[in-house]
Write a structure and sequence with these properties.
By secondary structure, the protein is an all-alpha fold. It has a domain at 59-110. It has helices at 16-20, 34-46, 59-85, 96-110. It is elongated, with a radius of gyration of 31 Å. It comes from Geobacillus thermocatenulatus. Residues 17-26 have a biased composition (Basic residues). The chain crosses the membrane at residues 59-85. Keywords: Membrane, Transmembrane, Transmembrane helix.
Length: 113
């Protein structure tokens, strides 16, 4: 079984990042047909330039969006849990008296003194 993969010389870096940044150009694989070599040589010259990739949404905006989605998910989960599972009114979950009652129940169960 012959190995048909192209082998680069040991002196050139084999890192994909180095090739992507243009430091090392990977030579096209050698083929038995001279027409294929001529086409690949023309294809390299006619290949469009690659442009630097820019971010459409900045990292800080992504973090803010993720935090907002987490807060919305938490609120929706509390509404569903309090109304569907706990048989309460859906918007009562946002009242401070509801949370005071929950904290009182939790503290009463942990009081050992």
């Amino acid at each position: 079984m012959s190995d048909e993969r192209h082998q680069e010389p040991m002196s050139s870096p084999s890192s994909r990042m180095a090739r992507r940044k243009g430091r090392v150009r990977k030579s096209p694989p050698a083929s038995a047909e001279p027409e294929a070599q001529a086409l690949s040589a023309e294809g390299e010259a006619a290949a469009p330039r690659r442009f630097a990739r820019t971010r459409l949404v900045s990292i800080w905006l992504r973090l803010i969006i993720v935090a907002a989605l987490m807060a919305i998910s938490l609120a929706a989960g509390a509404v569903v849990g309090y109304s569907a599972i706990g048989d309460g009114k859906p918007l009562d979950v946002f009242r401070p008296s509801t949370w005071k009652h929950i904290v009182d129940i939790v503290e009463k169960g942990t009081d050992r003194g």
